[in-house]
Amino acid sequence: MVVTEGYMDVIALARAGFPSVAPLGTALTEAQMTEAWRLAPEPILCFDGDAAGRRAAVHAVERILPLLKPGLSVHFALLPEGRDPDDLVRTEGTSALAAVLAHAVPLFEITWQMVREGRTLDTPERRAALEQAINAVTERIADPTIRRNYRALLHERNRTLFQKARDKRKPPGYAPLDRRLPPAGPPFAPRLAELAGRVFVAFLLAHPQILFHHAEQAVEALAGDKALSALIESALVMLANHPDMDGARLAEALEHAGEETLRATLGRHLASELQRQCPDPETDYRRMLSVLRDQALAHESEAVQTIIARELSPEAWQYFQSLQEERCRLQAETD
Known about the structure:
Elements: E1 2-3, H1 7-15, E2 20-21, H2 30-39, E3 44-47, H3 51-64, E4 75-78, H4 85-92, H5 94-102, E5 105-106, H6 107-116, H7 124-138, H8 144-169, H9 192-206, H10 208-213, H11 215-221, H12 226-241, H13 247-256, H14 260-265, H15 267-275, H16 281-310, H17 314-334
Parallel strand pairs: 1-2, 1-3, 3-4
Antiparallel strand pairs: 4-5
Helix pairs in contact: 1-4, 4-5, 6-7, 7-8, 8-11, 9-15, 9-16, 16-17
């Protein structure tokens, strides 16, 4: 089903074989959206290809986000510049309109475009500004599971774009340190970062409310470890269905679900965390997260220093300084 802007558009869509409705000159209301969902779980909102149509799409996003429920969403069909459905059918035929509707994009994509528009992500401060915008727009979503998923996916987009911007600044010939240097210790000795990651995950599983509250940050911090990331994702799914779980029950549920990582790498750390008295888990969480981030930056800095020692270049030096500045900023946040 298609929701469009005016009655002439409804007539054009009906003649083209597409069932449709229109709010008839008013902004889409909560009651109208509820009625649209009764007809279809993911209706298509079709807006004219002009400035007013784009503004209407933004307003629709702002109005719909608080109403989202699992299984209920919308798609957006954006018409070519200066066109409306009636005009498009008359001039180019039904197939042209069908093509526009077939390429309708999910609400999530429109939300991302809305928060991303006009922003560059070439510095930590600009990335932080986008993080704030993401948090603000997702705060509108009333359903906690949908809010968490939107926030995590939008932050993942932010991370990807920021990393691409950083990659462009890396000096020629750069490669991650672990591709150019032999391991620092025996092959069976876990690296410090791996050990810190395990302790961090054990802490999160022992304190499910901290994990649930900081889900997107935790997933981001563990992005380099697929096994630990998958374990955290499984835990978040369980917490979404049973938010009152404590650490012992969560660990037991993960074991019953066959999570091999829990037994293979976290057994000792998790047992320790479950027994440890922790008067202020929020402070402990922030401290552990800072350690993980600082280790990642230190590892990257060491790689760039190796390049600088071999051949100093302005690009390498500038990139090294940006890493040091980011470490200083992180240190200031934790002091």
